[in-house]
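INTERNAL AUDIT FORM
Audit reference: QA-55
Scope: verify that the stored structure record matches its stored sequence.
Auditor: D.O.
Record contents follow.
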Amino acid sequence: MSSGAGAEMRKTLGTAVFGGMLGVTLFGIFLTPVFFFAIDWLGESRLFHAVWMRRLGGIALEVFAFRGVRRLSVLVVQSVRRLQVNGVARNGQKHSGIQGDKGNGKPADDRIKKSSEQK
């Protein structure tokens, strides 16, 4: 056993932590199946087979799963990709989508090659 400064507090804290771990384990082992069967039994009742309850459940699932946010993000990503494929820049001007393009539709590498060939 411990002794000294803070020994009493550490014993009490250790007892509380051990008791909490033991209690949560026992609740998890025994109450999880009870809750599962209770929810399963409620799901088979006539109340949850009603059309309005199924719609309410679908709406709740949409809200809690953030499906609306996911759909919106997919639409935003698709529209951005579509704009990139069509060659529209962020400022609304057309560009060729080739890195190094200065606005004349030709990549910078071609201009360098042509200028060296002319010399």
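Auditor finding: record pair retrieved intact. Residues 66-119 form one domain.
Action required: none
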